[in-house]
Amino acid sequence: MNLRQLFLRHIAQTTELPLMLEVERGEGIYLYDTQGKAYIDMISGISVSSLGHCHPAVVKAVQEQVTRYMHTMVYGEHIQAPQVQLATLLTEQLPDELNSVYFVNSGSEATEAAMKLAKRITGRREIIACRRAYHGSTQGSISLMSDDYFTRPFRPLLPDIQHIDFNCEYCLHKITERTACVIVETVQAESGVTLPRNDYLKKLRQRCDETGTLLVFDEIQVGYGRTGTLFAFEQYDVQPDILTLAKAMGGGMPIGAFVASRERMMAFADNPILGHITTFGGHPVTCAAALATLQTLLNTDHISTVKKKEKLIRDMLVHPAILDIRSAGFLMAVEFQSFDIVQELIKECLAEGVIVDWFLFNNHCIRLAPPLIITEAEIRLTCEKLLKVIDKVYREGVKADVKRLSY
Ligand code: PMP
Question: Which of 61, 86, 307, 313 could join 291 in a cystine, given CB atoms 3.0 to 4.6 angstroms apart?
Fold first, then answer.
């Protein structure tokens, strides 16, 4: 059997029609398949590869660390230089109160632990999240999801979860003295890019302060420069009590984190001790990769050029088939008439050597989330390819053989 057949046989499947791109290697904005064909990764592996694939600084950091030591002990006991240096550099970029970092293995785990920390600190049970938000896929984090299709089969989920609409000022009255925390994405990603409007985040902050509720910003997808600042919340003049991070943080290696004040974080060290336990969280190799990633982002102009390059994409992507473009820096939703068109576009883009995708809660939109390192010339080339594909699908219509990519 070849690799494709073995993939289908032995790798647990999550859809009936996986993309099946057989990856040979990655470099910069490109992935290469085993036939040598190059693909421009316009989604950065879902907002992960912000420095592109196999960034030399990240590769070097990983190579150096694996020769020194890998796992030594479960999280929080040994002093490991890459972990401590990363936490120090990361907290230097954050408001003074966000000075203590707990490293975990994924975004979902960061969500889980943030929920636990909020309950432990406040002694309250209720947690509020927004409709059309995504915070992860574990039992706890999926409980925050409002979408019935994705959650119904997994019930019972966590009790005491309430949902409010993002940007709904009226809904804020649902936050009360019973609420341990409110978790929001600073910019909603999977809803098809929804930006906070009319000082919504400030009003949310104010309501949380009134009720003694902790405010958690999930910047797992929008953090690390994607929106044009290192953290998206910097653009809204409001700060969270707990910040969750993952995805782009590791430069392609798996790492997540939640950040809070040292005082609050100490709640995990007492009654019970070991309030959150992880064997691999803060692994020295992933921390070395994450340190190199953060250093690179801070020492280059990748983040500061995002807004200019966002504008270039918006200016270039003009076509009668495009109904709307919503964007927060390099997180962009390009809207079309139907899911069938979106699927056809994804398929045709792949044939053209451009990787795009859709959104979990918005299937009328194409997701664009390019690596921050993409150059203006590469943007021009990519947009020309995209317009060519859009034009083809617009002229020829959706072919009958397009099957649903998912639900
Ligand atoms: N929060 C947000 C906003 C996300 O986009 C994601 C991943 N798509 C997660 C949480 C969960 O992260 P992970 O897949 O690493 O568990």
Answer: 86
Alpha carbon of 189 to ligand 1 centroid (Å): 10
Q: What separation in Å is there between the alpha carbon of 320 and the centre of ligand 1? A: 33
**H helical segments located in 236-375:** 262-265, 284-299, 306-316, 339-352
Distance 256 CA to ligand 1 centre (A): 9
**Spatial CB neighbours of 74, under 8 Å, sequence gap ≥ 6:** 277, 278, 279
Residues with CB under 6 A from ligand 1: 46, 106-108, 111, 134-136, 185, 189, 218, 220-221, 246
Cα–Cα distance measured from residue 196 to residue 167, given in angstroms and rounded to the nearest whole number? 6
pTM of the complete model? 0.97
Q: Please check whether residue 44 is in contact with residue 369, taking contact to mean a CB–CB distance below 8 angstroms.
A: yes
Angstrom distance (rounded) from CA 298 to CA 343: 37
Helices 284-299, 81-92: inter-axial angle, 10-degree rounding: 30
Contact 319, 345 (CB under 8 A): no
Beta-strand pair 256-260/100-104: antiparallel
Mean predicted confidence (pLDDT) in 354-369? 96
Q: Which two tokens stand for residue 377?
A: 């010339």
Give the span between the Cα atoms of 258 and 106, in whole angstroms.
Answer: 10
Distance from residue 113's CA to the centre of ligand 1 (Å)? 13
User: Using CB atoms within 10 A of its CB, is residue 378 exposed (0-12), middle (13-18) or buried (19+)?
Assistant: middle
Q: What is the largest CA-CA distance in the chain?
A: 65
Q: Which atom of ligand 1 is the closest one to the Cα of 108?
A: 16
**CA 404, CA 118: separation in Å to the nearest integer?**
39
pLDDT digits (tens, 9 = 90+) for 16-68: 889 999 999 999 999 999 999 999 999 999 999 999 999 999 999 999 999 99
H or E element at residue 85: helix 81-92
**What separation in Å is there between the alpha carbon of 224 and the centre of ligand 1?**
14
Residue nearest to atom 2 of ligand 1 (CA): 135
For residue 399, report the distance from its CA to the centre of ligand 1, in Å. Answer: 33
Q: Which token pair is 140? A: 């706890």
What pLDDT is stored for residue 362 in this prediction? 94
Atom of ligand 1 nearest to the CA of 109: 16
Helix 306-316, helix 376-396: angle, nearest 10: 30
Q: Best of 137, 220, 244, 280 to mutate for ligand 1, by most ligand atoms within 8 A of CB?
A: 220
